[in-house]
Amino acid sequence: MDVKDDLWPIRTEGRGLRRALTWNRLISELVLPQHPCDDLLAHFYWTLHILADGGPRLFSPLEWRFLWRWLHLWGRAPDFRICSGCGRSLSSSSPALLTEQGILCPLCPASAGMKVFLPSLFLQELRSAAILPRDDFLQVQLSQNFPKEWDNANRILESILRRTY
Ligand SMILES: [Zn+2]
User: Fold this and answer.
1) If the chain, 165 residues long, is cut into consecutive pieces of 10 residues, what is the mean pLDDT of each piece?
2) 8 A C-beta contact, residue 64 and residue 126
3) What is the count of structural domains for the chain?
4) How far, in Å, is the centroid of ligand 1 from the Cα of 156?
5) Which of 23, 48, 53, 108 is the most exposed place for a label (fewest CB within 10 A)?
């Protein structure tokens, strides 16, 4: 059976196309040639569909979703439930810190490296973007309060991916 899927909305929207090509390049860099990675490629394929359907407001949250789920496939995704420093439960009403070691509670000091402060609302948005089913993700209402933080958080996930490889 031939599958024809032109993903036209991505091809006609420059910023969306740029994101797709960036993710594609990252996969090419981090996956060994001849190494089977069907689950990652399926995840990439479905991410492109969300990119086509979601529009620019979801570009950065979708990148977070793509990278977090990729890390999840490799067993390295930051845990939203417990602090990666001390193992305490992360409260949905307390701020936290995203680092290259994972998500830290307010009591744990961060080591050197990239970090993003997570007000409780932003932590909830990161969690939603990562774990919501596709249709719920497409409908999710995000605060729009954290444009820079989304991109900084994405760079941290990319850094974790590069260290995992
Ligand atoms: Zn802690």
Assistant:
1) 69 84 94 86 95 91 98 96 96 94 94 93 97 96 93 97 87
2) yes
3) 1
4) 18
5) 53
Kindly report the CATH number assigned to the domain that includes residue 152.
1.20.1440.120
Length in residues, the chain: 165
Phi and psi dihedrals of 115, rounded to 5? -150, 150
- pTM of the full predicted structure? 0.92
What secondary structure does DSSP assign to 16-40, as a single string?
A: HHHHHHHHHHHHHHHS-TT---HHH
Tokens of 156: 């941290």
What distance in angstroms lies between residue 84's CA and the mean position of ligand 1's atoms? Answer: 6
Look at residue 79 and give its three-state secondary structure: coil
Q: Which two tokens stand for residue 22?
A: 């960036």
76 Cα–ligand 1 center, Å: 18
